[in-house]
């Protein structure tokens, strides 16, 4: 009897212990739910507190004044070199690379906006430093170098020397056109087959220079090659949902798409934010230069996808599928480039709803950049205009830093808002 009594007592103890454990687990679970609810509420409150209004006259003045201040500071530190991107807030400089035209282009735009003689002097100075690229047959980026510098310089001043150098550069670029494939060789030395099949969406920006040269020379074959390359990009780089590959490999002899892949993005099938912006901007320009509806449609598809996938502050992460979102790096250069393209796109579409959507998105992007991403808000050395740019994430190259192409498109978008540049 004593044994049975003891067993009953033990079973009672076990039941009471299980009840206490259940209660403790329920308490922990309730606290966890409370924490998650609080976190979700805090996150929502944080999103709700983000100012999503557009540009105001005060913000525009702040932006233009700071661009002016930043450019003057850059001139004083780079000498006869060109700024590319910053590390620890300090410009890395080179002899022009693929980005030198952007710096010269910012100086031309400041001259357009203000009429200041010093801006003209400096624009001429840095444009002239790029002259040696006109015969570099191994460089597809003559277009990116020359359109903001020599082409703009000629359009603003009428200087025939700029015209001659620009045309020579376009003739050099034409040597890189693969007639069988229907595209321009992007990488490698001319004719180097190892890399001759790869085309990046970034290359759309080179086409402005070719369209300009075609008009200036009256040679339609130059524009035809630009159209062919843009069409190839629209057909291959833009996915069915409007997102994009940065890189596509083509069969060099037939122009058939072999595969889409990444270079600077997170994965082959993710969407690198700057690549998407290159497309929004590049296709809107291809439409402006050619009048072909297929390029307007490509620009709209990429713009709609871009806008629909922006975070609440309208500044994209370096890749739309970056693994550490919301704690991952942004790319303000993708934001400023897209903003400039969206402003132009808003002038090209006929539907009033679309026009309003693109313009409002551009203004919200620009307002967010002006409020939160100017380098003047940083401690210590603060070269450049916009921080929060990402050059090459996987190589940890200029992540959360300034870069000159982001600054160029920021200034261009700012002036396009008031119709001061086209």
Kindly describe this structure:
With 422 residues, the chain is mostly helical. It has a single domain, classed as Glycosyltransferase, CATH 1.50.10. It has helices at residues 2-49, 57-78, 100-114, 117-128, 142-157, 160-174, 207-217, 220-236, 273-290, 293-308, 332-348, 352-372, 404-417; strands at residues 82-87, 90-94, 177-178, 183-184, 198-200, 247-250, 257-261, 389-392, 397-401. Strands 5-6-7 form a three-stranded antiparallel sheet, with no helix packed on it. Strands 1-2 form a two-stranded antiparallel sheet. Strands 3-4 form a two-stranded antiparallel sheet. Strand 1 (82-87) and strand 2 form a beta hairpin. Helix 7 (207-217) packs parallel to helix 9. The longest helix has 48 residues, at 2-49. 47% of the residues are buried.
**How many helices does DSSP assign?**
13
Broad shape: globular
CATH class: Mainly Alpha
Radius of gyration: 27 Å
Percent range of helical residues: 55-70%
Instruction: Domain count, please report it.
Output: 1
Can you write the helix and strand succession as a string?
HHEEHHHHEEEHHEEHHHHEEH
User: How do the strands line up in the largest sheet?
Assistant: 5-6-7
Number of strands: 9
What is the secondary structure topology, with strand pairs?
Elements (H helix, E strand, L loop, with lengths): L1 H48 L7 H22 L3 E6 L2 E5 L5 H15 L2 H12 L13 H16 L2 H15 L2 E2 L4 E2 L13 E3 L6 H11 L2 H17 L10 E4 L6 E5 L11 H18 L2 H16 L23 H17 L3 H21 L16 E4 L4 E5 L2 H14 L5
Antiparallel strand pairs: 1-2, 3-4, 5-6, 6-7, 8-9
